Amino acid sequence: MENKILVVDDEDYHREVMQKLLVKLGYDVAVVESAEAAFSHLAKEKVSIIITDLIMLEMDGVEFCQKIRETDDKTIVIALTGHTDLYDAEKLKEAGFDNHLDKPFKLDVIKEAIQDGFEEFRRRTELQDKTS
Length: 132
Ligand SMILES: [Mg+2]
Hints:
The protein is of the alpha/beta class. It has a single domain, classed as 3-Layer(aba) Sandwich (Rossmann fold). The chain has five helices and five strands; from the N terminus they run βαβαβαβαβα. β3 (49-53), α3 (61-71) and β4 (76-81) form a beta-alpha-beta unit. Magnesium ion is lined by residues 10-11, 53, 55-56.
């Protein structure tokens, strides 16, 4: 699970760019094209961070995050937001997102968000270990 990231985006180009960036940063990354595919992936393999697009057909990113939060308050979930997105930061927080990244992607911003994400994930894991 350590260092594993799952990227969910319905656009081939965005998946490709994110995968390349994250591999370049040294992370173990899987990419899927929908929330449904993400749940199948997560049933087989846990990850520390999920980075998800918001505007997707079928299940959108907000609903996806809310569904994750029904059973999981530990995994870091980061939203990918575009210029035309209708979601504000408050709404994303309410849905259970830990952070959001704006498109177009900037390498240093992504890098920092992921480092913060792993740090927070470790903190949550330690907290959980202490209370269980
Ligand atoms: Mg999309």
